[in-house]
Design the sequence.
């Protein structure tokens, strides 16, 4: 979140190029801290965000959701019902609200 927009764009450009180089026959498992809160907008992002997303989205969500949509990737953290304590991975230092920013994404 504290990176300059050109750094974020560079990261997603590199990730996009890497995904383009993966043969269709290969399986994709993408895991990491994307600093993106994708929220719970299941109706807009069908097949990307599941019915069990949490919280509000942040400004980084568009990059991640667009990438997932382009490569037909699903954010599995949002596909299964869990207790909030088992889904969240980061607490905002000021608001003390817990958020999901670490994802497991598959094709």
Sequence:
């Amino acid at each position: 979140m504290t990176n300059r927009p050109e750094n974020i764009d560079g990261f997603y450009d590199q990730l996009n190029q890497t995904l383009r180089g993966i043969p269709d026959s290969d399986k994709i498992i993408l895991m990491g801290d994307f600093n993106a809160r994708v929220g719970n907008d299941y109706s807009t992002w069908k097949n990307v965000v599941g019915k069990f997303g949490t919280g509000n989205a942040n400004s980084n969500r568009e990059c991640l959701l667009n990438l997932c949509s382009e490569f037909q990737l699903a954010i599995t953290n949002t596909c299964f019902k869990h207790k909030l304590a088992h889904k969240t991975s980061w607490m905002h230092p000021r608001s003390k609200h817990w958020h999901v920013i670490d994802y497991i994404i598959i094709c």
Remarks:
- The first strand starts at residue 29 and ends at 33.
- The CA atoms of residues 7 and 53 lie 26 Å apart.
- The mean pLDDT is 91.
- Residues 5-21+28-106 form one domain.
